[in-house]
Specification:
By secondary structure, the protein is α/β, with parallel strands linked by helices. It is 45% helix and 10% strand. The chain is built from 12 helices and 6 strands. A hairpin with a 2-residue loop joins strand 5 and strand 6. Helix 4 runs antiparallel to helix 8. The longest helix has 20 residues. The structure holds uracil.
């Protein structure tokens, strides 16, 4: 009966015993009172940006969404490049990355392995990432196009248009603190401009309120090593901006 005090120990004094008692009479679930619910803190995994590099923090809903998107990309037939690719190249790295690199499109090696930046350009990109004290696994790496254009030709405007939504969603899921666009195709796609990369580089722009730095593509740097000096300046800007955001200063 309402108001009845259960037999045995005083429920107010001994909560565990009280719950055990409830269980013993077949009560399986106790609804928290409205006031208790109001005071319940939100799931901290949803509210807090996980700590920086090296963190193994994974937000479960994020992993599901990235996986679902990756699956969609693997089955994508939105442009003719699906006919010639060996593998779609979705992206790789940390779901909780503070820095996201965006390249142009997979090359031969990437197409073969299904992973971004694993060929010659990729080796240089890895060195660039290491130079600012990150590991490849700490950052996230993706491309504008998820399928290789035959003979590594430039991406076509229709191909970019078809593939861009995937990149947008990746950025939305990863929520990087800073983005680095590698080369003109990535910079032009994300910033909606045709300004040459030599003019865009060296300063921050914004992509949906996220600071975006454009710099030279590693493949260009392999052919034009004199530009590595400027590229190093850009990387330091990227590192400093990321550090500033993480530290909140
Ligand atoms: N160049 C790119 O832009 N992306 C890759 O994944 C490899 C080479």
């Amino acid at each position: 009966e309402p108001g009845d005090v259960p037999p045995g120990p005083n429920p107010i004094k001994d909560v565990t015993t009280y719950f055990n008692y409830l269980k013993s009479i077949g009560v399986e679930y106790v609804e928290p009172s409205a006031s208790a619910r109001k005071g319940t803190p939100a799931d901290p995994r949803k509210a807090v940006k996980p700590p920086g590099p090296g963190s193994d923090f994974v937000e479960p809903s994020k992993s599901l969404t990235l996986e679902a998107l990756s699956e969609e990309v693997a089955n994508c037939t939105k442009c003719p490049l699906h006919e010639t690719r060996a593998n779609a190249v979705f992206g790789s790295g940390s779901r909780n990355a503070g820095i996201m690199f965006v390249g142009e499109a997979p090359g031969a090696e990437e197409d073969k392995q299904g992973l971004p930046f694993v060929g010659r350009s990729g080796k240089l990109l890895t060195k660039m990432i290491n130079a600012i004290d990150f590991k490849r696994e700490d950052v996230y790496i993706a491309n504008v196009l998820k399928s290789r254009p035959p003979n590594n030709r430039d991406p076509g405007p229709d191909e970019i248009e078809a593939c861009e939504p995937y990149l947008k969603l990746q950025i939305e899921i990863i929520k990087p603190l800073v983005i680095c666009a590698l080369g003109a195709h990535a910079a032009h796609t994300l910033l909606k401009t045709n300004t040459p990369i030599g003019k865009l580089r060296g300063k921050f722009h914004e992509y949906n309120s996220v600071p975006l730095l454009a710099t030279y593509h590693p493949a260009f740097l392999l052919r034009n090593s004199a530009y590595k000096k400027e590229s190093w300046k850009d990387l330091q800007l990227l590192r400093d901006e990321h550090k500033k955001i993480v530290s909140g200063k």
